[in-house]
Design a protein that fits this description.
By secondary structure, the chain is mainly α. It is built from five helices and no strands. The relative contact order is 0.14.
């Protein structure tokens, strides 16, 4: 998907120009997704909900891709998205109807 490639390219550029910032971000991000009491799949589903609520298209794509890779089903992803719509209203529904659905089709 184009957004994922665009994000990866941009993060590579940040890595080259601000390696300390990128190292700190990667360390924090990896720590958040370490499997503990919650399996990584559920953390990715939480990420989908948060991405929808804050309207981050890049995040939506990455977390849909990662959730599927961790074994989440389309139905589980849509349930997580439904919770986000309950909090995010019409904007979240718009992103669910477009970005999340396209990501599911692209990464399934």
């Amino acid at each position: 998907m184009d957004l994922v490639s665009e994000l990866q390219a941009g993060m590579g550029q940040v890595q080259g120009e601000s390696p300390e910032l990128m190292a700190a971000f990667v360390q924090m991000d990896q720590a958040a997704y370490v499997e503990g009491e919650l399996e990584r799949k559920y953390k990715e589903l939480i990420g989908i909900g948060i991405a929808l609520a804050v309207r981050c298209e890049y995040c939506m794509n990455i977390h849909v891709k990662n959730a599927l890779a961790e074994g989440a089903t389309r139905e589980e992803i849509l349930e997580a998205a439904a919770v986000a719509v309950a909090f995010g209203g019409s904007p979240a529904m718009a992103y669910l109807s477009t970005t999340i659905m396209k990501a599911l089709d692209a990464f399934e």
